[in-house]
Design goal:
By secondary structure, the chain is of the alpha/beta class. It has 2 domains: 178 residues, FAD/NAD(P)-binding domain, CATH 3.50.50.60; 127 residues, FAD/NAD(P)-binding domain. It contains 7 helices and 16 strands. Helix 1 runs parallel beside helix 7.
Length: 318
Amino acid sequence: MKINSSVYDTVVIGGGPAGIAAAMHLGFHQRRVLVIDRKTSPMQFANTPIHNYPGVKPLVAPTEILQKMRKELREYDVETLFGNVIRITGQAPNFHVAIKSAQEALTTVTAKTLVLATGIARKHPKVDGDWKKWLPFAGKNRMSYYCPDCDSPQAAGKDVIIVNAGTANSALHVARCIKPFATRIRIFMTEDAYAPYTKNSETILNKSEFEWTHGLVKKINILEPGKRQQLITADGQTLECNIFFVAWIAVPRNELAIELGVELDGHGNIITDFKGATNIKGVWAAGDVRPITQTVATAVGTGVYTGIMIAHYLISLA
């Protein structure tokens, strides 16, 4: 998509719900805004309906919500460029943002303010050693769920296997969230997870109330989505269940924040004040890249509030 200017009040980096919400508020207040979207938000791919996002009935999938958000952005004359930020230089109110578009064209724009809404990277389970082989099941068609805060009630009356791509404690967190709903819970500790499977993992799990085993995922068979699903292990076992929950590792997409000198917490999340402002003047952050619960409603809330605070800041510049 071609952009119409080289100077903006705000450049928003990240086109998920937080970035869009911030941009929408600023666009409504007639600010010149550019959203740079890599199209890597989980909402770009997941099609299992969202239940805990107020005002959305009948229930719709994240992909549909994201499409509607993008349409509303255009109604407020907010520009969107599908691409990747490769470098940011300068300081407020003259940041220079170098962008490589989806068509490989290089563009540099100037912004008075920046919003880092870069989100997190999900570390998926591996199937036959390749995480990409899990993607056909990731948040798709009620086959697997990632957010116990969002989706635990989806386990009601279900036989659930938690496929762990993180630590033993992350698996137990998911198990305890869905315990009030599921009829049976088993934890499958993947031995090629991003957090190493260790003897300490076994000690932690053996002290829990949950069934568990470990191994490598060789194949996933979906006989009937949400009803009959099979995890085939590398040593030939077949574990059948109704649905999968994934215990995963979230890695903040903080590369640009580090480049700018933005302060991070011990997990790599961006630290902000109550306004969403970082320690770098003119730079705000919104959404999952901050240390918040990862739900669409929460991300939108941080985005809207950040947009409000930036609007006030831009008024002060005038």
